[in-house]
Amino acid sequence: MKKQNDRLTLVLTSIAVFLLLVGLTTLLLWSEGALGSRKATWEALENAIITLMAEYPDKPQTILGRILQLLLLVFGTFAFGAIVGKISSFFVTRALLQDKAVKYFQDHIIICNWNEKAPAIVRQLLEANLADPRDIIIISASVIEDRGDLEDIDNVYFVQADPTHHATLEKVQAPLAKAVILLADEETEGPDEKNALIALAIKHLEQTPGQEKDIHVIGELVKLDRHRHLKEAGVDEVISARDYSSGIIAQSAMFKKMSVVYQQLLTYSDDTNEFYFIEPGKYPQHFQGKTFPELIKLISEYSASNADNPLLLLGVKRGGEVLLNPKPSYFEKLDRDDSLIVMAFRNVERIV
User: Fold this and answer.
1) At a CB cut-off of 8 Å and minimum separation 6, what does 106 contact?
2) What is the arithmetic mean of pLDDT over 93-110?
3) N or C: which end of the chain has fewer CB within 10 A?
4) Category of 173 on φ-ψ map: left (φ > 0), alpha (ψ -120 to 50) or beta
5) Hey, is 312 helix, strand or coil?
6) What does residue 322 show for φ and ψ, rounded to 5 degrees?
7) Cα 237 from Cα 245, distance rounded (Å)
């Protein structure tokens, strides 16, 4: 109904504009006495057209003609401005549509906003999924100039739209995403507040009928006192570069080259180790009920037969809690829903 009303309004407005144009031109011809002569009529029409093109031809002879010519000049400025605007809008919209995702996504990663960290994050995600490439979608309200070679990669998509809008997130199938990363939009006055709005929109989509799912959201924090705001908005993991950098700096002061250790663990490549989770069902059932020292022994036995990708057991993830090298008082035995935390060169799909 609304679209029909909009179309009717557009048609009526176009008719009114056309009638106004014809009326002003006819009055101009009449005021100049040009209606009785074909030559005079043609000359007056030429002047009217030139006036509509925002030019100023010969002045009419009568005061009324001059007034009408000024009205045509003003009318032409607005009318042709609107036409040029519509044409520009058409091409811009078409360009944006080419920029947007045109396929069905599932188990993908969405990055909202863009800053100087974004290219490195995208490359790390690509490196981490070399064996099984995962689609990565970057949503930004502003034009991204520094795409580099990322736009030439098949499974990387750029979408220029507002990530705070539910419609934008629905178009890229956010409820089916593996994770959504909220980078700090440094072009806005309140990047944390914007990320909170995006998180609220994502959490609303979690209730989509037939697509109920806990969407994992990671948010970059700028101001430390906004940590609670992001958590209450639904961000599952709040990452503050300041927190991590201060800890690394302090530990590097105590232990030389400690920063290199963190750098290797946080960089995906064939020559460095990273942390991985081995989820329940992807390790042998007889691991359940084992103590942490017993699990270390079992993992070591498995690692000995996989020299190209040795594993080192570091801890256990139990629910939302991470237990690294746990004491016996904190960790008795492995439960059926626990995940193993290992260090390896590549992701471990399954331990058999």
Assistant:
1) 173, 176
2) 66
3) N
4) left
5) strand
6) -110, 125
7) 17
Put residue 198 in one of left, alpha, beta given phi > 0 → left and psi -120 to 50 → alpha.
Answer: alpha
Burial of 277 (0-12, 13-18, 19+ CB in 10 A): middle
The two three-digit tokens of residue 177, written as one number: 């995403």
Residues whose CB falls within 8 Å of the CB of residue 8, separated by 6 or more in sequence, listed in order: none
Q: What are phi and psi of 157, to 5 degrees?
A: -125, 135
Task: Locate 23 and state its tokens.
Answer: 């009326």
Residue 182, SS3 per DSSP: strand
Structure tokens belonging to residue 229? 């705001």
pLDDT of 5 reads 58
Number of other residues whose CB lies within 10 A of the CB of residue 104: 9
In degrees and rounded to multiples of 5, residue 223 shows phi and psi of -100, 125
Q: How confident is the model at residue 97 (pLDDT cuts 50, 70, 90)?
A: very low
Mean pLDDT of 193-217: 85
- Contact (CB, 8 A) for 61 and 32: yes
The torsion defined by the Cα of 342, 347, 350 and 352, in degrees rounded to 10, comes to -70
What is the value of pTM for the model shown?
0.63
Do residues 176 and 106 touch, judged by C-beta distance below 8 A? yes
Q: Residue 198's closest CA among 213, 178, 218, 212? A: 218
How confident is the model at residue 114, as a pLDDT? 93
